[in-house]
Amino acid sequence: MRTDTSPAIYRKDYTPPSYWVRTVEMGFDLDPSATRVATRMTLARNPASAEQAIVLHGEELELVQIRLNGKNLAKRDYKLVDGLLRIPTKAEEITLEIETLIRPDKNTSLMGLYVSNGNFFTQCEAEGFRKITYFPDRPDVMAQYTVMLRGDKKKYPVLLSNGNLIEQGDLGDGRHYALWEDPFKKPSYLFALVAGQLVCQEQTEKLKSGREALLQVWVEEGNLDKTQHAMDSLVNSIHWDEERYGLELDLDRFMIVAVGDFNMGAMENKGLNIFNTKFVLANPRIATDTDYANIEAVVGHEYFHNWTGNRVTCRDWFQLSLKEGLTVFRDQEFSADMIGTDSGRAVKRIDDVRVLRQAQFPEDAGPMAHPVRPDSFVEISNFYTVTIYEKGAEVVRMYQTLLGRDGFCKGMDLYFERHDGRAVECDDFRAAMMDANGRDLTQFERWYSQAGTPRVKVTTSYDADKQTYDITLAQSCPPTPGQAKKQPFHIPVAIGLLDGKGRDMPLSLKGHSDQPTTLVLELTATQQTFHFTNVTEQPVPSLLRNFSAPVVLDYDYSDADLAFLMAHDSDAFNRWEAGQRLATRRLLALTEAAQQADSPLSVDVALSASLRASLNDVALDPAFRETVLTLPAETVIAEQMEVIDPQAIHTARRFLRLSLAKDLRQDFSRVYAANQTDGPYSPDAASSGKRALKNLALSYLAELDDADAHTLAQAQYDSANNMTDRMAALAALANSQAPGRAAALAKFYSDFEQEPLVIDKWFSLQAMARTTDVAAVQTLMKHPAFSIKNPNRARSLIFSFCNGNPSRFHAADGSGYAFWAEQVIALDAINPQVAARLARSLDRWRKYAPALQEKMRAALQQVADTAKLSKDTREVVGKSLAAN
């Protein structure tokens, strides 16, 4: 393997900047092939720094001119080495002017200023601003920005930047200008610029204080009919943040802009949020129920960043979860509140935990494992991970679980009171929670500093004579890279006890005067026993209610206990969890049998009976019934195995689904008929839930792959008045031997070839179809609609195959791995961020059987040996190969 890796950056080595930047004035003369950027900044020496120079970052820039306090600097007056510009000086107050030339049309990395479909866009988080001008591009340097944009009026009639529009007008030479001012200090990663031919939907919204704000959603011509849901989501976000946390929009306007070429989902630039079109554009013709929900969540997430990320930002990038984990928690709570019902909140919670288990738990167990607050990195872009976001959100949720909603809000109030307008650390957030509530949360810091998923082993003991019940909790955490031994975490474990009729029992625990039916036990030692009294009969414990901590729970439930909880638990999450545990046991047994050539596969009736009961329980919301009947994913089953066997897992899961389809055929048919949504399409929770259950029933019936199933799927496809039903029917056909399969795929493409987001779905569906192999993906890559340069298109086909079709990707001949290596190398030359994310597909190669391991290692080595490999991809591949 090549050894010319970039050096790691360590949190312990943080040093304050040599100069603070007070104001930034920027002028842009926009031209795709040669944009001139003139920057004037005022700086003040930082007395906390011993550095005797101004230190600026820059990448891929042509430096035209530097002026220091009005004096032109010659090359001998500064040093420019490896993207670091150092200007020696001892001056206390400085005015620094820099002119740079950049080439946006050549910028395929989509970081900094780039061109997409003839329009200008920026992406500056984490370190994209240094591709625009030389600057102390670090989050703790916050300044006020004024931005002048100049460009051709016909080509770029819309000129946008952060904050408030101060002035606009013609320049008299076919060009025009717009002057923007952001009254709030911000770090450079929140800078944004948009210019081009765009149209907007706008409305004025009255805020809680009585002030009015202009809201705008900007899109390309032809997409204006797809913006209403994004606008509604923005309005709902604004009012939710006012009501829940007392936080008001602080600008005169708030803008969302959608672009089809974007590395991320969206970006929270102050007042000018730039979004991937995937999370803005929606109407019944092109968007599924999931798309509508995702748009609401992402719009909420980026808006909530206005306070948790923008007004209070990160001191350094090691504190990334300070803004991202907190804001994911806030968007999760927002989405749950928008659903409004208890069962809807439970389904939202289940969906969030599914993501955690399918993506973050494996990350915690692999070579890229890192704490919520990492100690080091080579490339910060590689740390925009599910650990930072989703596990970070669970850490924030635990504060609320320990302190209660009111206590959490008190902590938030103190956090803003102390730190508004500042760049701070994760410890500052924890301190605000402690001080506002008078709680000692010192040990809670370990959730930030220790990687890995803790395991909580539970044992219980009942004394019928004394009517006492003991619950013993023991915690451990496996080693992770760089952390062999772990100290005990502070773990909130919410529990309940059920009596023989399935009713919640009052809980009497020493030290608690009340008798709640759910109690949060605080596990802080390696092992603790909790002694309950007045327990009148042997209970069935309901453990880790609402998934009160991101841990693996180990308790020896019997199958009967799980069926009982599945039928009776008042905690909806644990009711679902009981069914998942029961199904996981069956799938693991079936996987083991599938690995033995002479071992027949069979399923006992207990699981089928439990699922039938839930499927037919009309007292349960359809959305909840759909979650119960959805089997654990192949990736979840893989995590339960010492050695992963993708083929056996796939065989086992398909067999179980087919068995359930046969056993419950009449039930699924009845549920399918009962959950039709007649009339115009609506993405509301009730209608979405009915469609989810109906389409789950269709997917099970499609497993039968007979004429009746083909006819049902084709009829739904032909009559569908919304994308949710159309995609569900197309998926059923694509995974079948139906004679109309090819025709349906062709018709779908023909009907939607002018809708890029829908064609992404078309590619993705085929990439994950059970019949799709490497050859089929390579054929699809030759389709005229495919472009590897567009991140959405690359993700829809290449990523969907490598990450969403495990049985085909892990083909015994290694063809999937050879294909992966080709694509990582190709993407790295275009867009290192996207390449590095694809590189993660093989980071757990050592968990597989030796025959597969060897082929994976060879593919990783092929990438590692590539001469011109970005530090983004090299870090991932290097850590993967080095892991034991």
Automatic annotation (TrEMBL):
Highest taxon of the source? Bacteria
Keyword hit for Metal-binding: yes
Q: Which reaction does it catalyse?
A: Release of an N-terminal amino acid, Xaa-|-Yaa- from a peptide, amide or arylamide. Xaa is preferably Ala, but may be most amino acids including Pro (slow action). When a terminal hydrophobic residue is followed by a prolyl residue, the two may be released as an intact Xaa-Pro dipeptide
Record Gene3D superfamilies: 2.60.40.1840, 3.30.2010.30, Neutral Protease Domain 2, Peptidase M1, alanyl aminopeptidase, C-terminal domain, tricorn interacting facor f3 domain
Q: Which UniProt keywords apply?
A: Aminopeptidase, Hydrolase, Metal-binding, Metalloprotease, Protease, Zinc
Start and end residues of each Peptidase M1 alanyl aminopeptidase Ig-like fold domain: 452-556
Required co-factors: Zn(2+)
Q: Does the keyword Methyltransferase apply?
A: no
Per the database record, which ranges form the Peptidase M1 alanyl aminopeptidase C-terminal domain?
Answer: 559-882
- State the EC number(s): 3.4.11.2
Q: Which residues form the Aminopeptidase N-like N-terminal domain?
A: 28-190
A GO molecular-function annotation: alanyl aminopeptidase activity
Show the PANTHER family listed in the entry: PUROMYCIN-SENSITIVE AMINOPEPTIDASE
Q: Which family does it belong to?
A: Belongs to the peptidase M1 family.
For this entry, the protein name equals: Aminopeptidase N
Q: From which source organism is this entry?
A: Herminiimonas glaciei
